[in-house]
UniProtKB/TrEMBL annotation:
InterPro entries: HAT_RTT109-like (IPR051236), PLC-like_Pdiesterase_TIM-brl (IPR017946)
Family: Belongs to the AIM6 family.
The protein's name: Altered inheritance of mitochondria protein 6
Organism annotation: Penicillium salamii
GO MF terms, alphabetically ordered: phosphoric diester hydrolase activity
Length: 362
């Protein structure tokens, strides 16, 4: 749908964590060009990303970078992720409530900078009086590549939904968002995916226009194969458990679910990723090998998600020891998993990464 996201994982997050200065220095290249309103004699109108080749990586907890967003773009990451918290109609970006500050908002850190970058990428000049159609993306070397903006709703789903949708207005109004128009998917330079408490019922409420796509629960996708009835039963039990819970923090792929999930509930008209915690759904491969049961589960995940046009993403992968991590990455790549997130970088062994991390860059 949006071009192939190569297997990759791992976050530019990891790379950027270990080489922060280099990338942050590079990121400064973006800042002045974004600030200057128009092209001048020293710069081509669109040279903001001239030397950058996009790679299939995802900048996890992107806002931890000293220069969020720009560091990831400079590294060529096609995906960035922001955790958002709703307080008094403002969406603050941060990992926990204690890390929030008034100036770090979805608008100031992502929406406004992206509008500025995209306006520069789609200049109206004497030679090109009309706007590009479709609009060019953030990467000059691959203008058709959409930037994946994963927004993790940390506060209650419905309220946060309306605020996120409203705050995306400047991108929507300029036609920059990938959207579903009731019949087909229209690709734009930015594709927004809601995860965390994003409510599925609100994603699908409007049947003629959608521009926030769901992060479907990979372990709850239903197989068309009737042999899976035992699995469906388990599914229904999970639904009833969810509807009983009073908590507003349900986590990825659990909010606003229909009473019954069928084989066709999640597809590319409403979802982009299908994700699950690797630790929870597959478990630790021990002793250093996946069991047959684990392999069958992984294959089933990839098959049902790809059949529905969704990208498979695992998060909460073990990151240590390194040999185990590499084995897991290799197996998952072979099996067709699209994106891997490694969480808890701080807890992972330190220093161990430097030498091999670039093996994973295409
Ligand atoms: C769906 O969204 C479009 C675009 O925002 C809007 O014009 C339309 O009224 C919405 N439809 C419903 C049923 O809310
Ligand atoms: C996508 O899923 C919705 C239910 O969420 C379903 O009504 C629709 O028919 C599906 N579309 C396709 C093309 O499969």
């Amino acid at each position: 749908m949006l071009g192939i996201i190569q297997f990759i994982s791992i976050s530019c997050g990891i790379v950027l964590s270990f080489f922060p200065d280099e990338y942050d220095r590079a990121a400064h290249n973006w800042l002045p060009s974004v600030d200057s309103a128009s092209a001048d004699t020293k710069h081509w109108p669109t040279d903001v990303s001239r030397d950058i080749i996009p790679v299939g990586c995802h900048s996890h907890n992107d806002y931890w970078r000293r220069v969020p967003l720009y560091s990831a773009l400079q590294a060529g990451c096609v995906g960035v992720e922001a955790d958002v918290w709703l307080f008094d109609d403002e969406l603050y970006v941060g990992h926990t409530t204690s890390s929030l500050t008034p100036r770090r908002t979805l608008r100031s850190m992502y929406v406004d900078p992206l509008v500025a970058i995209l306006e520069r990428q789609n200049p109206i000049t004497d030679f090109q009086p009309g706007a590009n159609s479709p609009a060019h993306g953030v990467f000059d070397t691959d203008p058709g590549q959409s930037l994946l903006l994963l927004i993790d709703f940390k506060t209650a789903g419905p309220e946060t939904w309306y605020a996120v949708s409203k705050h995306l207005g400047p991108l929507r109004d300029r036609g920059y968002l990938t959207h579903f128009n009731g019949e087909e998917l229209i690709q734009g330079p930015i594709t927004v995916i809601g995860t965390g408490n994003t409510p599925f019922n609100l994603v699908t409420a409007n049947t003629t226009y959608r521009d926030i796509f769901f992060d479907a629960p990979l372990d709850r996708l239903v197989d068309e194969d009737p042999d899976q009835s035992a699995y469906t039963q388990q599914n229904l039990e999970m639904v009833s458990r969810d509807t009983n819970t009073q908590s507003t923090n349900l986590g990825q792929g659990q909010s606003g679910m229909p009473a019954v999930i069928t084989a066709n509930t999640f597809n590319s008209t409403n979802s982009f990723y299908a994700s699950v915690s690797f630790q929870k759904a597959i478990g630790f491969p021990w002793p250093f090998h996946f069991t047959q049961h684990q392999m069958a589960l992984i294959r089933r995940h990839v098959r049902v998600a790809h059949r529905q046009g969704l990208k498979v993403r695992y998060w909460a992968l073990p990151s240590w020891p390194r040999s185990l991590r590499n084995h897991i990455w290799r197996v998952l790549a072979q099996e067709g998993v699209d994106v891997l997130n490694v969480d808890d970088l701080v807890g992972a062994t330190k220093g161990d990464w430097n030498t091999e991390v670039f093996d994973w860059w295409p």
